[in-house]
Amino acid sequence: MEQDVRVLTEMVKKESAFVDRVTAEIAKVVIGQREMIERILIALLCRGHVLLEGVPGLAKTLTVRTVADVMEASFSRIQFTPDLLPADLTGTQIYNQQTGAFTVKKGPIFASIVLADEVNRAPAKVQSALLEAMQERQVTIGDQTFRLPDPFLVLATQNPIEQEGTYPLPEAQIDRFMMMVRVTYPTREEETAIMERMVLAAPPRPDKVLSVADLDRARSVMAEIYMDPKVKQYIVDLVLASRRPDEAGIPGLREYIRYGASPRASIYLNEAARAHAFLRHRGYVIPEDVKAIGYDVLRHRIILSYEAEAENLTAEDLLRRLFESVQVP
After folding, report:
1. Which are the contacts of 185, defined by CB distance < 8 A and separation ≥ 6?
2. φ, ψ for residue 258 (rounded to 5)?
3. Of 230, 120, 202, 106, whose CA–CA distance to 167 is shortest?
4. How far, in Å, CA of 34 to CA of 38, rounded?
5. Which pLDDT belongs to residue 179?
């Protein structure tokens, strides 16, 4: 087994060489935000979607645009507004008077990387149209169904401070996001570097260093990464503890959790932990990989009770208790 893991690690090192090139190209444009960039790459490897939450001005849109620039992939930006219609997202049928037939005009959702800017500003009808695209990776226009391109990645942003005129995302849609990433402020050094870079006459342009073939090979190798049965059990223990903390030996937590994580959580924890190991050029998963991505995979899947809200507890607080209490293999 040890020899097999060594061979796997060598194979992962070879196929993950593009990761350093990609991050170097993104760093030409985006200063800092390494965690957000890494989570986007994990989602890309796992065919997942990401919800980016942060105040304005933290380079969320710039990062997504730059990730698309370093790839051989199409990019589309959709600004979500209260008057947006499903057809503005998916496309529509146009009647041709000369031929008497309808032709399909595809919408901006037909791109490899879709930036759904301020996703919570669109009404429920638009959210449901996005739901089909995210889960089934297809779009229905009239009586025709169209497959979306591969890769297909929805990167949605939302502002946590200005909630006037917003529509809370349905639980079914939030659960379809592989990760919810909290984007934080830059450090003092990063802020200085941002300020200095913004005086440049022309912003730097990244090179395209990631092809679809690279991505396909990376996904194939990532699926072979070794995960010990004890690490798999650790993932299941974490998810089950979010549903029945009393049975997991975590007293005093049950009253604060209305609903725990769905089975998608264990699926995504498994995939994201493998991708996290892949980004570190490792052919095996360790518990620290699960811990590193655990908060991003679980924070939007824990539905708080009224008691938790009354005591100003957040999902982060409960997850901290969860990770501290569940035994690490």
Report:
1. 58, 191
2. -80, -50
3. 120
4. 6
5. 92
